[in-house]
Design a protein that fits this description.
Layout (H helix, E strand, L loop, with lengths): L3 H5 L2 H17 L6 H17 L4 H13 L11 H15 L4 H12 L11 H11 L17 H8 E8 L5 E8 L6 H21 L3 E6 L2 E2 L2
Parallel strand pairs: 2-3
Antiparallel strand pairs: 1-2, 3-4
Helix pairs in contact: 3-4, 3-7, 4-6, 4-7, 5-6, 6-7, 7-9
Length: 219
């Protein structure tokens, strides 16, 4: 049975993750390489594990998290769908179980806010893990004067933590930000659609979704 380690250590997949991020770097996007995909895999696993999902589902959501952005190898536009097809081909070639492949492909194909739907718990966990990965280290440019709004928002975040509360009724995104770098309105200007999607994804998992900035509840 195919494991997350099998996928993570596959040299072909490593190449595709690297080259997909190269494309985004050329286009001026934030980091989408191993730091991002491993963070997404880890957070998605944490969400499902905390809610009591099966060990197999934890493996599959990590695989989905690791592979979710390889579609950028083809094109940024429609990358979720391209990534789902690439994942289907790669996992089939590796001898994965068809039912496992279906679970991973569905999650990947539904993770991007343009066409996303939290159609399964795995898709919901992937959406939440992906959209809450906001951090300074994802910004590639070192020239603050040339930052666009996405760079400013990411660069302002000193710490971001995604955590389910003890009652298991809500998933909270805790952000520690440098308020000299951006305004709260900047955050909502570019992340409103993502946050609405996170709310939908949290609902699929039986949770509410909240954002705290510097200790204050914003949504």
């Amino acid at each position: 049975m195919l494991s997350f380690d099998d996928v993570k250590n596959d040299l072909t997949i490593k190449t595709y993750v690297t080259r997909a991020d190269d494309t985004l770097e050329e286009m001026g996007y934030t980091e989408h390489s191993f730091a991002h995909v491993l963070k997404v895999a880890s957070t998605a696993k944490y969400l499902l594990e905390t809610l009591g999902y099966s060990p197999r589902e934890l493996e599959l959501v990590q695989i989905a998290g690791y592979l979710h952005d390889i579609g950028n190898l083809v094109n940024r536009e429609g990358h979720a769908h391209h990534g789902a097809i690439l994942a289907f081909q790669l996992l089939t070639a590796m001898g994965a179980d068809p039912d496992d492949i279906a679970s991973v492909v569905t999650a990947i194909g539904n993770h991007d806010e343009g066409t996303a739907e939290a159609v399964t718990p795995l898709a919901a966990a992937l959406i939440l893990a992906d959209k809450t990965d906001v951090r300074r280290s994802r910004v590639r440019s070192v020239d603050v004067a040339r930052f666009d709004i996405h760079d400013r928002v990411n660069y302002s975040v000193k710490k971001a933590t995604t955590k389910i509360n003890e009652e298991k009724t809500a998933v909270n995104l805790f952000l520690t930000i440098d308020t000299d770098q951006f305004s709260t309105m900047d955050y909502f200007e570019i992340f409103l659609n993502r946050m609405l999607l996170c709310r939908q994804a949290a609902k699929k998992l039986g949770l509410e979704f909240h954002i705290y900035v510097n200790g204050q509840l914003l949504a």
